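A protein record pairs a chain with a discrete description of its three-dimensional fold. The following entry can be read in just this way:
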Amino acid sequence: MSANDANFMLFSNISDCSYVSCYCEENVWKLCEQVKKAHPSELPKCYAVFVSNERRTVPLWRQKAGRGDEKLVIWDYHVFFMHNPSPNRCLVFDLDTTLPFPTYFHKYVTETFRSDYAVTPEHHRVIPAEKYLAEFSSDRRHMRRPDGSWIKPPPSYPPIQTNNNTHSLDDFICMKPGKGPGSVYDLLHFVQQFYKPPDRNITKTQN
């Protein structure tokens, strides 16, 4: 199946993807790396998306770590992967959602974000996958307690590092315009950027 096929999927099975609970930024980095190795021509159509806000209190629904019937959880930030192969087709790959893997963009946004419930409106930092691979680094300091112990066990592979920085995670979580890589959108403009509804204009015929 070629990348031009309408049924083409970057990841055939969620079980084939690298995943460690509470390390969503690294999980998405690994997805970008997987695309670069297996489908390099698709990498320019892929993005890492950070969701956060000034207070770092983001409510997300349909999350595996969530509670209640609607699986609500509040994170300081979240990261998911997007593949936008054509103007009318955008897929979200979220390793932490209870929604299908992948989920069409509009369904994912509708089910996951409900901004009218947010204490502080969330924002979305969209980073091209290639840029994310080149600039993201983390020494995992944010997952350590003051005594140095782990809040959650880290991935078994070494920390992701660049030549220029050992820890750039905060630049990606920050949602101030003009600071950090990629582009920052509020929810409305994020949807407008990546959701192109099908043309429903119907040509009328005479009876």
Notes: The radius of gyration is 18 Å. The first helix runs from residue 24 to 38. The helical segments are 24-38, 105-112, 129-135, 169-173, 187-194. The CA atoms of residues 10 and 38 lie 9 Å apart.
